Fold this protein.
Amino acid sequence: MNITELRYLVAIRKWGSVSAAAKQLYAAQPNVSKALKNLEEEYGIRIFERSSTGMIPTEQGRHFIRQAERVLDEVDRLDLDARSRQSSCAELRVVLPHATYASYATVDFLQQMADSQQLRVHIRESGSMEALDHVLRRGYHLALLRYAEEDEDYYRRYCDRHGLHREPVMEFEYRLLTNREGPLAKCEVTDITQLNSYMEVLHGDFQLPGGEDSGLRWHTNPNRRIHVYERCSQFSILQNLPNAYMWASPMPRRALEQYHLVLRKCPAQRQRMKDVLVYPDRGTLRPEEQTFVQLLHKQAALTVK
């Protein structure tokens, strides 16, 4: 027995025949007939007597149908309650790279969902390999991956193999982020070794495909590095140390103005990067997830590149 068979049964009682029930439910007549036969065989009873005026329930059949109606009423109430709770609860579980525009999209999302009766939001920042692990094994549904263009085949094969949908968000080249009044804001870096006399700020949890830990491919001078693991400290360091810099993706203009920073192109570094949103390739995104994705694309379009 299943819920569909019970719905077919109640429809036969209501409309008087298998053909009429099938028509009202937009179902194939053989399927309705099979459902009735399955129920009668499973419970060893005859539910209907066939007559010239239609199908008439037997005494056992009337009792069985009343029970079926009660079951269906409970199922419908359960479904209505679940949908009602879902509509009143904004839930988002997302893994992001260290991308300021993604953080701004998250704030925009929280502002839009602030009036929800229930709000369950989990925001995690990590490298791409850890992000994939969270989507596949730790209950997160969205992840924004950041990787070098030459690693595209690796991530594409990985996502295809694990049934993950991919949605491009941004392509870019890293820029030097530094104090607006610092020396790097006033010169052009044509040779990467020019950076050896400055302090580099970089994220301590960066991870390349395959679990390597050698850092980004263009980092230099390992003796003058500041590893950070959260966003506020990186901007404070750059704001207060004119001789510090970090490699940064496109950023919202308001963030640059707030922390008195500037993005500078660096001809010595031409590696192309990609930000790609991934999520399990089954069903559709929930409304609140769709909202977040739209806000993410909007903030990406507003960045200073």
